[in-house]
């Protein structure tokens, strides 16, 4: 009977144990999980497949229809006036900026991590050359006052402007303020226009510097400065209260370049820059002219007018914009550059690498004004480890710096040469002291005519503060199992033998410097000892004494590198510096220490004295 069967079944169920019930429950749960898992992965596979399919479809559709919606963003410069008002610095190669950090977006905290605008030197030469040869435009308005350029690079740029004017182009200078470099550039133009209250300040080369002997004496600081080379006069400012005769003699390299500037301006404007700088003030004192009219009376400028009058005159001369009759028909610098067709990259597998060493040689990253050895060594390594590299051109624009970091670079250059890769040096504005240390072993050295080089010498900068501690009543004493184990060279007076040992170390590096120069350049050591001594030379002077091989440009160095490597077709690759590590502006003590080290060459914390020994041309600082 059904009732009986039901009763029997009920009894069986009642006999199930607790663990049987738990097991059955887990089986049911697992069945749901398993089913859900299967459907989940089926959904994932379907979604991925569908997504990939849609991406492919949309990309294909986009490729077909995108030309229908594309517009040409280039501005046609035909008939327009090129306007160039730079506001930045001319460099050989811009550094790679550090990644943006969260604090760089904060306002009102005085944190400014923005770099200046960089204008690569070769690009400046190419810009004026392209303008000269461009039949689409015939005139430019140029304000040179915002272009920070070295005195060495200014003259070649000015000559390019002059070439454009001689070719029939108009280059109209419009500015309110000019120093010597600005006026050199302006003198190459076809016309100079200024406002009533403009300033033209011709001061020539050189300038005053601080002499700190009395300061250190008053503040009880003892400079421990030792130099090898009687013309290595840069650090004398720590020891003297006036400039030595040797220091003045060592700046004689200024004279030939200054004469070139004066002749260039005299030829273009019939203006004697020497008279303007030294004698012109007498005309103002005597009442022969006034400060407002002097620029016009002395022939420095062609017209004095205010901005509104200048703008109107330019519109009448060159025409108004199609969109606004009150605006000049112009094209600015960046859009004008974009109007040129880009050159197709070379398909050659032969590469000539250009590695730039620019700024003070120090440890760390490549920054504006700092040739960090970490970054430069990485660039050199990238160059010589690339199997396609056939030659390396080292572009040097440096006054030197740390002997340790200069040697790191030199060692890496030697590794490239040991692989059979020719290394050719192209000297820019500066290749002095440490800049020459890394250049001398090159297979060939090119220098610009007015490059500043040489300064083969060494100095050490250390400071001790024992007089301050004595004044405060603090005495240093201690015990050590060695003679100098308890000696603190920053807080205690130096024993005579300690000073002698430090000076001997500097003298030995000077011997290394002259010896390697003799070997690298195949010059008798006696002659090297005579031309070294910390003396500074121009490129033309260096050619006469054998420190460089030829006067030439970066382009000349690249062409020779290709010849030396035996390649007819090649691709030129400017090795990009690695991105710098971000600087934390909240680490104020480390920033102060970094600034102090850069200004004095003295590392407050580093116990390795080699890091306070410099092959640096302090006299060359004003060049840039």
Poorly predicted runs of 5 or more residues: 1-14
Distance between the termini: 114 Å
Q: Can you tell me the CATH class of the largest domain?
A: Alpha Beta
For the report, how would you describe the main beta sheet? Answer: 8 strands, mixed
Question: In a few lines, what is going on in this structure?
Answer:
The chain is built from 22 helices and 25 strands.
Overview of the structural elements:
This protein has 624 residues and is of the alpha/beta class. It has three domains: 41 residues; 198 residues, 2-enoyl-CoA Hydratase, Chain A, domain 1, CATH 3.90.226.10; 264 residues, 2-enoyl-CoA Hydratase, Chain A, domain 1 (Alpha-Beta Complex), CATH 3.90.226. Helix content is 43%, strand content 17%. It is built from 22 helices and 25 strands. The strands form six sheets. Strands 13, 16, 18, 19, 20, 22, 23 and 24 form an eight-stranded mixed beta sheet that branches. Strands 11-8-6-4-1-12 form a six-stranded parallel beta sheet. Helix 16 links the parallel strand 18 and strand 19. Helix 3 packs parallel to helix 4, helix 4 runs parallel beside helix 5 and helix 14 runs parallel beside helix 15. The longest helix has 52 residues. It is globular.
Task: Draw up the topology in text.
Blueprint: H1 2-14, H2 18-69, E1 81-84, E2 88-91, E3 117-120, H3 121-133, E4 139-142, E5 147-148, H4 151-166, E6 170-174, E7 177-179, H5 180-187, E8 191-194, E9 199-201, H6 213-218, E10 222-228, H7 245-249, H8 254-269, H9 273-278, H10 281-286, H11 294-297, E11 303-304, H12 307-318, E12 330-332, H13 333-338, E13 351-358, E14 360-362, E15 370-372, H14 373-385, E16 389-398, E17 400-402, H15 403-418, E18 423-432, H16 434-437, E19 444-447, E20 452-454, E21 458-464, H17 466-472, H18 496-521, H19 525-531, E22 536-538, H20 539-545, E23 550-551, H21 554-565, E24 571-574, H22 588-600, E25 613-616
Parallel strand pairs: 1-4, 1-12, 2-3, 2-5, 4-6, 6-8, 7-9, 8-11, 13-16, 13-24, 14-15, 16-18, 18-19, 18-20, 19-23
Antiparallel strand pairs: 10-21, 17-25, 20-22, 21-25
Helix pairs in contact: 3-4, 4-5, 14-15, 18-19
């Amino acid at each position: 009977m059904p009732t009986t069967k039901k009763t029997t079944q009920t009894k069986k169920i009642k006999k199930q144990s607790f663990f049987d019930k738990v097991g059955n429950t887990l089986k049911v749960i697992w069945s749901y999980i398993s089913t859900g898992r299967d459907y989940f992965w089926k959904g994932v596979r379907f979604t991925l497949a569908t997504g990939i399919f849609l991406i492919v479809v949309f990309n294909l559709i986009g490729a077909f229809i995108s030309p229908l919606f594309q517009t040409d963003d280039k501005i046609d410069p035909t008939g327009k006036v090129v306007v160039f008002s730079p506001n930045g610095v001319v460099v050989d190669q811009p550094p790679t900026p550090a990644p943006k950090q969260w604090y760089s977006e904060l306002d009102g905290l005085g944190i400014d991590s923005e770099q200046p605008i960089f204008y690569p030197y070769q690009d400046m030469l190419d810009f004026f050359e392209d303008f000269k040869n461009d039949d689409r435009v015939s005139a430019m308005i140029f304000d040179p006052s915002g272009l920070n350029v070295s005195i060495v690079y200014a003259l070649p740029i000015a000559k390019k402007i002059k070439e454009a004017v001689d070719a029939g182009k108009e280059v109209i200078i419009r500015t309110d303020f000019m120093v010597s470099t600005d006026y050199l550039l302006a003198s190459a133009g076809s016309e100079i226009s200024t406002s009533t209250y403009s300033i033209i300040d011709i001061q020539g080369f050189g300038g005053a510097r601080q002499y700190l002997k009395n300061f250190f004496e008053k503040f009880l600081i003892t400079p421990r400065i030792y130099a090898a080379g009687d013309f290595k006069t840069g650090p004398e400012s720590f020891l003297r209260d006036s400039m030595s005769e040797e220091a003045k003699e060592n700046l004689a390299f200024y004279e030939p370049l200054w004469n070139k500037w004066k002749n260039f301006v005299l030829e273009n404007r019939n203006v004697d820059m020497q008279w303007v700088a030294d004698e012109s003030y007498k005309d103002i004192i005597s009442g022969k002219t006034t400060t407002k009219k002097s620029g016009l009376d002395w022939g420095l400028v062609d017209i004095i007018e205010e901005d509104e009058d200048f703008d109107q005159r330019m519109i009448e001369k060159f025409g108004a914009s199609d969109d606004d009759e009150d605006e000049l028909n112009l094209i600015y610098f960046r859009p004008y550059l974009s109007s040129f067709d880009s050159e197709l990259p070379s398909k050659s597998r032969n590469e000539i690498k250009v590695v730039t060493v620019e700024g003070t040689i120090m440890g760390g990253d490549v920054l504006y004004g700092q040739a960090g050895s970490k970054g430069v060594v990485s660039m050199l390594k990238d160059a010589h480890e690339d199997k396609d590299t056939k030659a390396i051109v080292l572009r040097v624009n440096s006054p030197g710096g740390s002997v340790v970091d200069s040697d790191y670079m030199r060692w890496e250059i030697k590794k490239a040469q040991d692989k059979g890769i020719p290394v050719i040096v192209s000297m820019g504005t500066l290749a002095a002291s440490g800049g020459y240390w890394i250049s001398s072993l090159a297979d060939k050295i090119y220098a610009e005519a007015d490059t500043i080089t040489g300064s083969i010498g060494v100095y050490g900068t250390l400071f001790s503060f024992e007089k301050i501690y004595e004044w405060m009543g603090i005495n240093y004493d201690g015990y050590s199992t060695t003679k100098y184990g308890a000696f603190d060279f920053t807080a205690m007076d130096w024993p005579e033998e300690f000073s002698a040992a430090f000076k001997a170390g500097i003298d030995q590096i000077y011997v290394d410097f002259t010896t390697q120069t003799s070997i690298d350049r195949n010059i008798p050591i006696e002659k090297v000892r005579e031309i070294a001594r910390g003396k500074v030379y121009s490129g033309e002077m260096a050619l006469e004494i054998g420190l460089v091989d030829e006067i030439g440009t970066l382009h000349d160095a690249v062409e020779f590198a290709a010849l030396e490597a035996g390649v007819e077709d090649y691709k030129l690759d400017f090795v990009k510096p690695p991105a710098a590590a971000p600087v934390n502006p909240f680490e104020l003590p480390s920033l102060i220490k970094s600034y102090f080290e850069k200004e004095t060459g003295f590392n407050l914390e580093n116990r390795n004295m080699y890091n306070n020994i410099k092959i640096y041309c302090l006299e060359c600082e004003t060049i840039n």
